[in-house]
Each structure stands twice: as C-alpha cells, then as structure tokens.
C-alpha cells in the first residue's frame, strides 16, 4: 500500500529498456545526441508548436527555477499560489536562480488562483515605483499541490490577466499529464494556446527515472536558457540517458497511459473514502492525489499494516483520541493497483 508519493514508484519497463538500448556504443554529449533530436520533434508535434525549443534537466526544481530565471529579473516578483510547489517545496531555488526575485503569494481555494485574486495581487505590486519589486511573471501549477486541476479555460483566464500587465506565464507541469487526462484538453490547448510561455513538462512523477523537459514556446528565450542551464550545473554530459527516458515516455502515448492509470486509482480511492461515514474529502480529487481526513485509529491501523502515506500536515501525531479526524495526503502512481486501494479502504473501514 504505497501512497506516499508518485515519485516512490518504480520505472516502467519501456523506459528501462530504452536506457539499456541507449547504453550501447557511443553518443555525442550535452544534448547533441540523436535521441534528443527525436525528443525535440516529438514534443513539437505533441504540442503543435513547430518553433518551440526543448531542453531536458533531471529535476522539477531545476526545470521550474531555470524557466522562471529567463522570465523574471532579480528586481521583480513571480505571482503564484500560496501552495505552489515553487513556494512550498523548492528551498528557495526560484529565488536563487533568478538572482533574488520575490514570490508574491496569491490566495484561492483548493490551491487554485482565481483571475480576480491574481489581478488584485498584480495591481497592488510596484505601486511605489523604484522602491518596490516590479511585476515579473505568473506561475501556474497544474495539477496543483492539492490534487486539483485547472481547465484550459481557467489557464486562459489567468493568462489574460497576466497579459493585461504584459507579464509572461510559466506553468509548473510536474504532473501535467495527470492534469491533461482530467481536463480533456489537448497539450496545445492547455499551454501556448491558453497563453503559457514556458512549460515545465514533468516526467519523474509519472514514471520516469529522472527527467523533466522545459518547453519554450517563445524561442527568443532559448539561448539565455542554455546559458543559465550550463552555468547552473544542470547540463548533462551524458545527455542521452535523459533523452532516452523522455523518448520512451512519449512514444505511443505512454505518458498519457501512465497518467490515466494513476488518476483512475486515485478516483477509486477517493470514491471509497467518500462512501465511508467517518471519512471526508478535503479537496476535489481531479488528478492522482487524494486529500482526506479519517479517524486517528484508522490511521494507526493503516500504519501498523505497512501503508505508506503522509499525514497532512506532516507534523500530525498518531498519539491522541482515536476518533479524532486526521488529514492525510495519499498519492497514486502509474502502478498503483486496485488491490492496494481496496486493502487500504478495508483498513480504514475497520473490516
């Protein structure tokens, strides 16, 4: 019963096989390998963006921070949700890679900014000229850190607000595939057609060993991105091992199939918890993460049986009244089985 995170899962055999195949013989370094050319073509076709530039890095934090560094100068601010990954889980990497740009936190239910809240935050910034940080960029996390999804229309509405102030828009798509499968939109509709300038296109949380793509829909930023990636220590010498993962991930729609499995498992878990009288959902389950509260005694049973997941917040204690509700985050991966889900639900019910 592994629900701690989707990045605890194993790697699908298609990706491992691709790595083994890439390991034969020699290949040119630093992103000039032949497989990377295939990746670039595939991503351009998937996103209907023939002019897009595509770069690979090994971590989501690097993808986000490097992307924002070409959109936001040090004296400006990035507008993002209070629960955005760049705010909560990247140890100041965006501030570091931008050279000190600020993060301005925008409120909104279920980790989703609203156009109205974003407009208020942007309008409030830089009101004293040189004495304030300036308006820099907007960053949207999709799927969000609370398991919800922005539709293409919602992304477009936020991007329209940014455009009113001449601001570029970044999307943190660590779980982009999960969001896409929920939304029913095409990759292009969810990104550049909705006003996204740069996408951090996740692979690691959806089955890859460790690779993320940064997709620059405006190629004017490409050379600066290349320099920043090199200067920041994120240009791989043996780049073919990143390329091989991403190529296998994209081939025959594997990335969408993996995300669909994870989403389906989360839906099964969410529906099972919602049907239990002593449990309640904290946020809508729209991707592959479930946020729910159920009695402390049920948590004790689950942990004793070896279930892995995080109490949320993580400093909650299993000590205390057994009937008190404790919140939890449970994340499904591409290989979460119905049997795992049903076993956890049986423990929560006390079967």
Number of helices: 14
Beta-strand percentage range = 15-25%
The 3D shape can be described as globular
Q: CATH H-level name of the largest domain... which superfamily?
A: Type I PLP-dependent aspartate aminotransferase-like (Major domain)
Radius of gyration: 21 Å
Give unreliable regions as ranges.
Answer: none
**Major sheet, described briefly?**
7 strands, mixed
Number of domains: 2
Give the CATH class of the largest domain: Alpha Beta
Helix share, percent: 25-40%
Quaternary? single chain
Q: What is the residue-mean pLDDT, rounded to a whole number?
A: 97
Number of strands: 11
Secondary-structure element pattern, one letter each = HHEHEHHEHEHEHHEEHHHEEHEEH
CATH fold-level assignment of the largest domain: Aspartate Aminotransferase, domain 2
Which structural category do the helix and sheet elements fall into? alpha/beta
What strand order characterises the main sheet? 1-7-6-5-4-2-3
Characterization of the model:
The chain folds into two domains: 12-254, Type I PLP-dependent aspartate aminotransferase-like (Major domain) (Aspartate Aminotransferase, domain 2, 3-Layer(aba) Sandwich); 255-349, Aspartate Aminotransferase, domain 1 (Alpha-Beta Complex). The chain is built from 14 helices and eleven strands. It has helices at residues 13-22, 34-46, 60-69, 85-88, 93-97, 115-124, 152-164, 176-183, 187-190, 222-231, 240-250, 254-274, 296-304, 338-349, and strands spanning 53-57, 76-81, 102-106, 134-141, 169-173, 198-202, 212-216, 280-281, 289-295, 310-311, 325-331. A seven-stranded mixed β-sheet has the order 1-7-6-5-4-2-3, with helices on both faces. Strand 8 and strand 9 form a beta hairpin. Helix 1 (13-22) packs antiparallel against helix 11 (240-250), helix 6 runs parallel beside helix 7 and helix 12 packs parallel to helix 14. The mean pLDDT is 97.
